[in-house]
Amino acid sequence: MKLYDDYKDHADFLTIYVREAHPTDEWQMKSNAKDKDNVCYAQPKTLAQRVAIATDFTQRFNYPLPFGIDQMSNAANDAYAAWPERLYIIDERGRVAYKGGNGPFKYNPQEVRDWLAARYGQVKHTETATSSDKKS
Amino acid sequence: MKPILKWSLVGLGVAVVGVGTGLSFMAGSPKDAVGMVRYALPYMHFGTLQVGSAAPDATLLALDGENKFRLRDRIGGKPLVLVFGSFT
To answer: A100 — contact with chain B (CB < 8 Å)?
Structure first.
């Protein structure tokens, strides 16, 4: 989301929710268990179920990016070979300008940041001292 | 049993154990390796899109659960960063 904050004036962003990667009825990860992140959902069988999970996600994290949900036909997912997670940049002419690797191992937001930085310049963050920092 | 058949079976067994061990190492456990083979690999594709390819269109549902919009309608004056993913 920091990437979005840094470059939202230069680029549009769209998150596309696709089929779940680690639902309870398939390959659930320990990190999703109730005693940890409590992200426990079965694989949605209907579009309404996808909407419900996507809504929980955006509300739980106050997710600011524009959001779209893939159809149950998984048309967007199939067109972009997106599962389980993937990043693309589409240029102003509607061409693929950047194609990220398949997540999670090749999911690399830094590559998107580098692409945007090459075009619009790097966004530099200045560390601001907190009140506790100033006291010490 | 002919020696060649015997050694072929041994080789196959070693290969199966090796692949299983490798997948278990990658996934974190034998159970996760089974999950990965059964639920992940069939859905994970490199894809045919390349840099320079025309971006495919798709119809998406808005978070309100009612309105739909076209991905191509979001392409315009600025680059569009697409973030595909799910919750789990």
So the answer is: no
* Pairs across A and B, CB distance < 8 A: 196
Q: What is the CATH number of the domain that holds A86?
A: 3.40.30.10
Tokens linked to A99 = 């194609």
- Global confidence as pTM: 0.81
In this structure, is residue A40 part of a structural domain?
Answer: yes
ipTM: 0.86
Number of domains present in the structure of chain A: 1
- Enclosing domain of residue A51: 2-126
Asked if A123 is an interface residue toward chain B (Cβ–Cβ < 8 A), one would say no
Domain presence at residue A15: yes
User: Is residue A16 classed exposed, middle or buried when 0-12, 13-18 and 19+ CB atoms within 10 A define those classes?
Assistant: buried
Cα dihedral sign, B18-B22-B23-B24: positive
Question: CA geometry: angle at B34 spanning B23 and A109, to 5°?
Answer: 60
Strand order in the sheet with B59-61: A96-99, A86-90, B80-85, A12-17, A67-69, B59-61, B68-70
Residues of B in contact with A112 (CB under 8 A): 81
**A84 upstream amide cis, omega within 30 of 0:** yes
Give φ, ψ of B44 to 5 degrees. -100, 115
Give the model confidence (pLDDT) of B25-51 as tens digits.
777 778 778 877 877 888 888 889 999
**Is A94 within a domain?**
yes
CA distance A126 to chain B (A): 25
In a domain, residue A135? The reply is no
